[in-house]
Write a structure and sequence with these properties.
The protein is mainly alpha-helical. The protein is built from 31 helices and no strands. The longest helix is centred in the N-terminal third of the chain and has 31 residues. The radius of gyration is 40 Å and the shape is elongated. The termini are far apart.
Length: 544
């Protein structure tokens, strides 16, 4: 090829190369100058999301797009992509929560944003924000989601918190039907709903609902809860009826207790006897102890049951209940024996260091020791167990019974200073005030005793205070309340003389109110309980 021709070829090639480079440069410049649109950047973001949370530039893309999101759909689309990263990559939850927080501030009434935010806050562990977001889920189709969010936030972790949560009770009621019957937690949720009503003072409504649920469905946990609720409501017979078809040992134990409280002692003993053959040693211990406590009389059956109980308690692994049953069983057993034999058994027992055993030893000794000699021993025992409330209470009874009022006043003052006493302390303080003729102060003190802690003696002493000042109608009402508490469940075994004394006070009030016919009827009832009651015989003669 000649030199001129080569020159022409090189020139042409150079011209073509320059043209190509210009075309490439034009394309590059065209791309650089092209405006960034939401759609194009979203497409670019999707490519980065597909490569994972560590893809370079992903944070910048999100920020650019979130600033330019024109409405709710675009905001939701970005949150959807942040959700993908949060679920797939560790450590991205906080960014998802921050974006949801900003979106929630921008669209406070958008339920879709509230739903997304609830999930984001759940992933990041922000309980307070999760609970607040759940408040925005108001549509019926989001009820279950709202409920689950509130559960995760801890709003239903206790009755107190559920009661404080806005609309908590209504939300729980609305969510319950959404769970299938096969859902294992459904009964627990129903029980929670009932407990919340009880906590908020709607006990009657809770009982009504519980009975309706127990009648409609055969669910062991719900049925047992209803039985416990009815038992605590003073309806033991209905509680026992609910558990009649159950074969679980736990339900049978509750049924036996309900039968006993309802006055069906023979039926209760039959159930306890069946339970005493269980493989579970704890159940056998409880059944033997309860059978012994319920057995009539002081003869061979009670002793045999307690001896069977002790044979189970001879092993080392007693457990907390076994120790408690052994302690109280020993005391019951000792009361079946003459004083000397009982003292020997108590003093040699494995429970010798227990305050109640030492108290029982002291009680048996005081049967034959004059009060002036027994009182120092009582004080020695009180000094050994200064914080034992059962011991303080017995000592108060003993000093009152023996008319050792100086000792009683000293004991009550010590108990008040130490904070040892409960309702019994207020009761004995009121009795002391009554002795001093300060009946108004006594009434005020007894009125402060919570209703749940009022024994029959509290009601009786309140009646005595009112009778003392001549308020016979009020006294009559209090005595009748005392009689109702004393004989709750219909059982009078072992309470005949106490019931007779109460009924005699009722008769005295009726006479003072000029209701002689009613008084006469009550006195005759007193004599059926205690035929040797001289005071009742004298009152009947005066009424006749």
């Amino acid at each position: 090829m000649t030199r001129p021709f080569k020159g022409i070829v090189c020139a042409v090639l150079a011209l073509l190369g320059a043209s190509f480079c210009g075309l490439v440069l034009f394309r590059v410049l065209q791309g650089a100058l092209k405006p960034r649109t939401f759609g194009s950047e979203l497409a670019a973001l999707d490519k980065l999301v597909g490569r994972g949370v560590d893809a370079e530039g992903i944070a910048e893309k999100f920020l650019w797009l979130e600033k330019r999101a024109g409405g709710l759909p675009e905001t939701l689309s970005l949150l959807k992509r942040r959700r993908t990263l949060a679920l797939e990559g560790t450590g991205y939850g906080p960014d998802y929560a921050a974006a949801a927080r900003a979106a929630l501030a921008r669209y406070p009434y958008a339920e879709q944003i509230a739903a997304v935010a609830a999930e984001a806050f759940a992933l990041s562990g922000s309980a307070a924000e999760l609970s607040a977001a759940a408040n925005g889920l108001v549509s019926p189709n989001l009820t279950k989601a709202a409920f689950c969010a509130r559960v995760l936030a801890g709003d239903f972790s206790s009755p107190e918190r559920a009661s404080r949560a806005p609309g908590g009770k209504a939300l729980l009621d609305e969510a319950l039907p959404l769970f299938p019957l096969s859902e294992p937690r459904k009964s627990a949720l129903r029980i929670d709903s009932l407990l919340l009503r009880i906590f908020e003072g709607e006990r009657g409504e809770a009982v009504r609902r519980a009975e309706a649920l127990a009648a409609a469905e055969i669910d062991p946990s719900l049925r047992r809860f209803t039985a416990l609720l009815l038992y605590s409501e003073g309806r033991p017979a209905r509680a026992a009826e609910l558990l009649a078809s159950s074969s679980s040992a736990e339900d049978l134990e509750l049924r036996a207790a309900a039968l006993y409280k309802a006055g069906a002692q023979a039926d209760a003993l039959e159930v306890w006897e069946a339970l005493s053959d269980q493989d579970d040693r704890t159940i056998r211990i409880r059944s033997l102890y309860n059978s012994a406590a319920a057995a009539k009389g002081e003869g061979g059956q009670k002793k045999a049951l307690l001896e069977a109980l002790f044979s189970l308690l001879s092993e080392d692994d007693l457990g907390p209940y076994g120790r408690e049953a052994g302690l109280h069983g020993l005391i019951r057993y000792s009361r079946l024996l003459p004083a000397a034999e009982a003292l020997a058994i108590l003093e040699e027992s494995a429970w010798r260091g227990e305050a109640l055993v030492n108290l029982e030893i002291l009680r048996r000794r005081t049967e034959t020791v004059p009060p002036e000699r027994a009182a120092p021993e009582v004080w020695l025992l009180l000094g050994k167990y200064p914080q034992n409330e059962a011991l303080c209470r017995w000592a108060a009874w003993y000093f009152e019974y023996q008319h050792r009022y100086d000792d009683l006043d000293r004991l009550l003052a010590n108990a008040a200073r130490a904070g040892t006493g409960g309702a019994w302390l207020a009761e004995y303080q009121a009795i002391a005030l009554l002795r001093q003729g300060r009946q108004s102060e006594a009434e005020a003190l007894l009125a402060e005793v919570p209703a749940a802690e009022r024994s029959w003696t509290v009601w009786a002493n309140t009646g005595a205070a009112e009778e003392y000042r001549g308020a016979f109608a009020g006294a009559l009402e209090r005595y009748e309340q005392a009689a109702s508490v004393l004989t709750a469940g219909g059982a009078l075994r072992g309470k005949g003389k106490q019931a007779a004394r109460l009924q005699l006070r009722i008769a005295q009030c009726l006479r003072a109110l000029h209701r002689e016919g009613d008084a006469r009827r009550v006195v005759r009832y007193v004599l059926s309980l205690d035929p040797d009651n001289i005071e009742a015989k004298g009152l009947l003669q005066r009424l006749d």
